[in-house]
Amino acid sequence: MNQTLFAFFITNTDSEFDPLKFTSIIECEEPNNDLSRFRGFIVHKSGEKVALYKENLLLRGCTIRNTEVVSGIVIYAGHETKALLNNSGPRYKRSKLERQMNVDVLWCVLILITMCLFSALGHGIWVWQYDDKRKPVFDAPGHNGKYWSPVQAAVYLFLTMIIIYQVTATY
Fold first, then answer.
1. Of the candidates 40, 66, 86, which is a domain's last residue?
2. pTM, two decimal places
3. What PANTHER family does its record include (predicted)?
4. Does any domain span residue 1?
5. Which pLDDT score, from 0 to 100, does residue 131 have?
6. Separation between Cα atoms, residue 67 and residue 161, nearest integer Å
7. What is the pLDDT of residue 134?
8. How confident is the model at residue 117 (pLDDT cuts 50, 70, 90)?
9. Domain range holding 102?
10. Which range (53-57, 141-145, 161-165) has the least confidence?
11. With helix as H, strand as E and coil as C, how does the chain read?
12. What are the distances in angstroms from CA 169 to CA 38, 68, 161?
C-alpha cells in the first residue's frame, strides 16, 4: 500500500494475530520528525501495558527478508509519517561563486542607491538656494510655467540618476 508509511510489529509467537479481533488501545506520541525515537504502548483489556519503542517500528521503504509472517498495525499514515515530516524538500545547492555573485550584486544595488540619494540631495539643496526670480539657466519650467520645488526636483533627479548610473556602469 503506497500511503502506509509506518507500522510496528506485534511479536506474539504463541497465537495468530487477527486484526478484526484486535480490541486493545494504542497510545503513542504525536507525529514528529525524529526518526531515532518512538514511544508508545498498547493497553490491553486486562490493563496490561506493553511498551513500544523504535525497535518495534518499521519505516516506509524497509524490506523484510527471511521472514515468513509479519503482523502489524499502521500507526501513522499519509502526511503524518516520520519520513514525510523529516523531509524538508530538496536542498538548493549553490556554488561559492554564485553566493559571492549574490553578495556583489547586493553591494552594487546599495552603492547605486547611495549615489543616487547623494546626487538627489545635493541637487535639491542646490535648487533650494535659488528663489523664484532667479533660477539657474539649465532649469526649465514645467508644463504650467512654474518651476519645480526643490523636493520635487530631487525626486525626479533621483529617478533620472538611477537610469544614468546604470547605463554608464555597463560601458
1. 86
2. 0.46
3. PHOSPHOLIPID-TRANSPORTING ATPASE VA, PROBABLE PHOSPHOLIPID-TRANSPORTING ATPASE
4. no
5. 66
6. 76
7. 67
8. very high
9. 96-170
10. 141-145
11. CCCECCEEECCCCCCCCCHHHCCCEEEECCCCCCCCCCCEEEECCCCCEEEECHHHEECCCCCCCCCCCCCEEECCEHHHCHHHHHCCCCCCCCCHHHHHHHHHHHHHHHHHHHHHHHHHHHHHHHHHCCCCCCCCCCCCCCCCCCCCCHHHHHHHHHHHHHHHHHHHHHC
12. 60, 74, 12
Of the chain, the percentage scoring pLDDT greater than 70 comes to 73
Q: Which three cell numbers stand for residue 72?
A: 502489524
Region class of 135: left (phi > 0), else alpha (psi between -120 and 50), else beta: beta
Distance CA 43, CA 49 (A): 5
User: How many domains, in total, are found in the chain?
Assistant: 2
108 found inside a domain: yes
